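User: quick one, sequence for these tokens?
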């Protein structure tokens, strides 16, 4: 798939078949995440791959807007690492770039995915830290649900020229 087609056709997919996501595809998504740009090229991310059904179901209850995890075949949690990047702001923007790469890579290989926000909701961050027994230096930033599409979504019109400012506001 062409890069621009991939960007424009990516949508949040929340309905999945029960076909498992194979390990090679998950690795491809993680590889794409690892190629995101990062401040000083510190690459301050860590990933938790979640494939156990009971854990996905538990997450669907703990996270207030993640009911689709009961159908998802996998999820990836993207976390910032204070041992690599000491400024939380940079952990967040870098991990968000990595998260977007996962969504785009998923779309490019025909998988559906949706970004589930963790940061900056402190209660979700605390819940994830507790559930996964995360070390002090690790900040959960986002969770991505992944599966084979059970829904297709059209490309909406979003390009709004009123938001473009040239050379000054
Ligand atoms: C930071 C962030 C947090 C999000 N959190 C959730 C969430 O908790 N649950 C959910 O179903 N979708 C979540 N989304 C997906 C958005 O709802 C979705 O991207 C938006 O509605 C636009 O739709 P699209 O992704 O199909 O273009 C989140 C997206 C972002 C960027």
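Assistant:
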């Amino acid at each position: 798939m062409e890069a621009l087609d991939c960007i424009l056709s990516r949508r949040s997919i929340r309905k999945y078949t029960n076909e498992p996501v194979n390990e090679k595809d998950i690795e491809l998504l993680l590889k794409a995440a690892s190629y995101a740009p990062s401040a000083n090229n510190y690459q301050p991310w860590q990933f938790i791959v979640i494939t156990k059904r009971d854990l996905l179901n538990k997450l669907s209850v703990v996270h207030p807007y993640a009911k689709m995890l009961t159908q998802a075949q996998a999820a990836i949690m993207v976390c910032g690492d204070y041992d690599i990047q000491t400024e939380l702001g940079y952990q967040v923007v870098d991990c968000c770039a990595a998260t977007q790469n996962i969504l785009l890579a998923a779309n490019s290989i025909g998988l559906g995915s949706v970004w589930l926000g963790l940061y900056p909701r402190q209660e979700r961050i605390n819940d994830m830290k507790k559930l996964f027994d995360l070390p002090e230096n690790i900040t959960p930033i986002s969770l991505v649900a992944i599966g084979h599409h059970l829904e297709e979504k059209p490309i909406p019109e979003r390009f709004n020229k009123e938001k473009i400012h040239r050379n000054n506001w």
